[in-house]
Specification:
The structure holds two protein chains of two kinds. Chain A has seven helices and nine strands; from the N terminus they run βββαββαααβαβαββα. By secondary structure, chain A is of the alpha/beta class. Chain A is 29% helix and 21% strand. Chain A is globular and about 50 Å long. Chain B is an all-alpha fold. Chain B has two domains: 1-42; 48-252, MetI-like (MetI-like fold), CATH 1.10.3720.10. Helices cover 83% and strands 0% of the residues of chain B. Chain B has eleven helices and no strands. Classes of the chains: A alpha/beta, B mainly alpha. Chain A binds chain B through residues 67, 70, 72, 95-97, 99, 101, 103, 105-107, 116-117, 119-123, 150, 152, 170, and chain B through 154, 156-157, 159-167, 170, 174-175, 178, 181, 254-255, 257.
């Protein structure tokens, strides 16, 4: 895959202050669904300009945390109105979600699939602008040539990039990703991670922050500024680790794994993950 | 290059395989039938030769075929529109489903043959009672398949739409409806052959035109050749109907999900 035509924005690449204002705050969020206690007292700020990864034992509630951020689920109300809250300190940011599966509509062309995110809900884009925005997003992921194809004609990796383009087309400020490349083979996954990193460092389409759920420690460390480690269910935050690696990272993406700092960070995460075994 | 030109005639044949093989086979069968009727001296009232059946096909048969075709098409159309509409209601309003589903099941389990005389009493011996019989027999498969199709969307697609705060209308038109099309299409195919059955059963009970009427009357007179001509005409309606739907299916429902049949 060739490096894509990236739309370099005016922002300095990857240079936002880490201590940006919170875009979104989870305050004391617990969640019980069908008598299953899934989340317990989650406190988490997602700040402007950061890439946060969430890791934890499988089935612990990582995806559920994303769904709280999307407001697809509400935190438990609590006994005396002292329940959890999902708040947005400033303006509620536009949020976009990338799922583990591409979730493309098989009856729509690639272009129409990307336009889907622009044609739904109260904030839909005027019809005349959709095509242009969809094509810009497809160009970002390097698939403009496939605009007239149907999902079935594309490989799994390409489908996932279409899904990313669909999410980016709606110009999300906060991008939430639920193991977006988890179903792909490792090489494709690596390529897409690098591509994601480039999009992120260029703040493509007005991105402000990314929250990504992943199973891969390597993915978490090489992409993020902070890694949130959840405990097993009911999941609470075990620890949050700052990734001390220099930025921007896309240039040295391949060699970063060889640095001692990288290895140490991975080791630290592993210790945290296994600390209750 | 030489390879390609050598292969070409064969490939042209292959394209028509689906047509050629059945045609050859059916022709052979007809010849065997014709010859054996002659050879074994089978009386015409038992089994007329294909040539006699062909002779029996006249303009009257055309008229009766046209009557049955109309009844079939109307019944099919009414059942599909009604079935799909009720399915949409079922999917969106739970109480409607809970209340009406047992009724639909009862309708399905009641033999149409038992209802047909009632339909004739209510609607007369004209086309209306046959259209009703045809629609009744088609209704249930359409309903079931449509409900299945409208419910066939996966959790992720639903979440995707909710992420963008899509309205109920948007979810219906842009997700549920297209997702249901493969299922609806197979419902159409199933009901196309049932629609013919319904119309002919209706004609058996009380009619003055139509293929079912021809079969019945010719059986009284042992005009077996006429009977056969009507049976062939009925089979032809069913086949042609199915083929047309199959062609539409392949052309428009190109994404075809598994498990839709």
């Amino acid at each position: 895959m060739q490096p894509n035509a990236l739309h370099a924005s005016a922002d300095s690449p990857g240079g936002d202050a880490l201590s940006g204002d919170p875009l979104l705050t989870l305050k004391n969020c617990s969640l019980t669904l069908n008598d299953t206690h899934i989340l317990r007292n989650i406190d988490l700020d997602i700040r402007q300009g950061e890439f946060v990864s969430i890791i934890g034992p499988s089935g612990c509630g990582k995806s559920t945390t994303l769904r709280l951020m999307l407001e697809l689920l509400k935190p438990d109300a609590g006994a005396r109105g002292d329940g959890g809250q999902v708040t947005f300190p400033k303006v509620k940011p536009r949020r976009g979600m990338a799922f583990q599966k591409p979730v493309l509509m098989p009856w729509l062309t690639i272009r129409a699939n990307v336009e889907l995110s622009l044609s739904l809900g109260p904030q839909k884009t005027p019809q005349s602008l959709r095509r242009g925005k969809a094509e810009t997003a497809l160009e970002l992921v390097g698939l403009l040539d496939y605009a007239n194809y149907y999902p079935k004609q594309l490989s799994g990796g390409m489908q996932q990039r279409v899904a990313l383009a669909r999410t980016l087309a709606a110009e999300p400020e906060l991008l939430l990703m639920d193991e977006p490349f988890g179903a792909l083979d490792e090489m494709t996954r690596d390529t897409l991670n690098l591509e994601l990193l480039r999009l992120w460092e260029n703040r493509a389409n007005g991105l402000k922050s990314i929250v990504m759920v992943t199973h891969s420690l390597h993915e978490a460390v090489s992409l993020s500024d902070r890694v949130v480690v959840l405990s097993s269910r009911p999941a609470g935050i075990r620890t949050i680790i700052d990734v001390p690696l220099p930025k921007p990272r896309s240039a040295g993406f391949v060699s970063i794994e060889e640095t001692p700092l990288y290895q140490q960070t991975i080791a630290r995460l592993r210790r945290e993950l296994h600390s209750d075994d | 290059m030489t390879d390609v030109s050598k292969r070409r005639p064969l490939e042209i044949l292959k394209r028509y395989d689906a047509l050629l093989y059945p045609l050859v086979f059916i022709s052979l069968l007809l010849v065997a039938w014709e010859v054996s009727v002659d050879a074994f001296d089978i009386p015409a009232y038992m089994l007329p030769a294909p040539s006699d059946v062909l002779d029996a096909m006249d303009s009257a048969l055309l008229h009766h075929t046209w009557v049955t075709l109309q009844e079939t098409l109307w019944g099919f159309l009414i059942a599909n529109i009604a079935g799909f509409f009720v399915a949409v209601m079922f999917v969106h309003f739970r109480p409607v489903e809970l209340g009406l589903f047992p009724v639909a099941i009862a309708l399905k389990t009641t033999p149409l043959v038992a209802l047909a005389p009632l339909l004739v009493v209510w609607l007369g011996t004209g086309m209306a009672s046959k259209i009703a019989a045809s629609a009744l027999i088609c209704f249930f498969p359409v309903l079931i398949n449509s409900v299945k199709g409208l419910r066939s969307i996966d959790a992720e697609s639903d979440e995707l739409f909710r992420t963008y705060q899509a309205s109920r209308q948007e979810i219906f038109w842009k997700l549920r409806l297209p997702a249901s099309l493969p299922y609806v299409m197979s419902a159409l195919k199933i009901s196309s052959s049932l629609a013919v059955v319904g119309a002919i059963v209706g004609e058996f009970v009380g009619a003055n035109a139509g293929l079912g009427y021809v079969v019945l009357v010719s059986s009284y007179h042992l005009d077996t050749d006429i009977m056969f001509s009507a049976i062939f005409a009925a089979a032809f309606i069913g086949l042609a109907f199915f083929w047309i739907l199959e062609a539409i299916d392949r052309r428009f429902i190109f994404w075809q999900q598994e498990g839709a049949d």
